[in-house]
Amino acid sequence: MKINPCYFALLLGATASTAVISGCAGTATRESTGEYVDDSTITTKVKSALVSDEVVRARDVRVETFRGTVQLSGFVDTPEQKSRAEDIAQGIPGVRKVKNNITVK
Questions:
Q1: Quick check: is 62 in a domain?
Q2: Does residue 37 lie in a domain region?
Q3: Is residue 102 very low, low, confident or very high in pLDDT (cuts 50, 70, 90)?
Q4: Is pLDDT larger for residue 31 or for residue 14?
Q5: Domain of 63: which CATH number?
Q6: Domain span at residue 68?
């Protein structure tokens, strides 16, 4: 059976294109590379702002970011620190939502 070289090239190109395009798509539970980088940057900025803040000084606060939603967890000494931590996180560019699960000791 002879295969036309043009037909073979077209088939190979279509298969490769489909594989590349499907590999770049994000899903509901996974982030694309760009989203992961953005979330990592947000997490770093929030952590830095919390540690350097005069009120919070949050060394026992964990920060996680997924698709622009920041989750704060851990411990602080006062309700004011908890509230301030949320305000700081909300003020970081790229943050869409803040879930404040910080516990006051």
A1: yes
A2: yes
A3: very high
A4: 14
A5: 3.30.1340.30
A6: 28-104
What φ, ψ does residue 76 adopt, rounded to 5°?
-135, 170
Instruction: Indicate whether 8 pLDDT > 80.
Output: no
- Rounded alpha-carbon distances, angstroms, from residue 39 to 14, 31, 43, 49, 84: 33, 9, 6, 15, 21
What is the spatial order of strands in the sheet that 61-66 belongs to? 61-66, 69-76, 97-104
Number of domains in the chain: 1
Task: Write the pLDDT tens digit of every residue in 26-77.
Answer: 545 555 656 556 999 999 999 999 999 999 887 789 999 999 999 999 999 9
Please count the other Cβ atoms lying within 10 Å of the Cβ belonging to residue 100. 16
What tokens were used for 32?
């694309």
Give a yes or no: residue 5 inside a domain. Answer: no
**In terms of pTM, does the model score above 0.70?**
no
> Could you tell me which residues come within 8 angstroms of residue 77 by beta carbon, excluding any fewer than 6 positions away?
104, 105
Tokens standing for residue 46: 């929030």
Residue 69 within a domain: yes
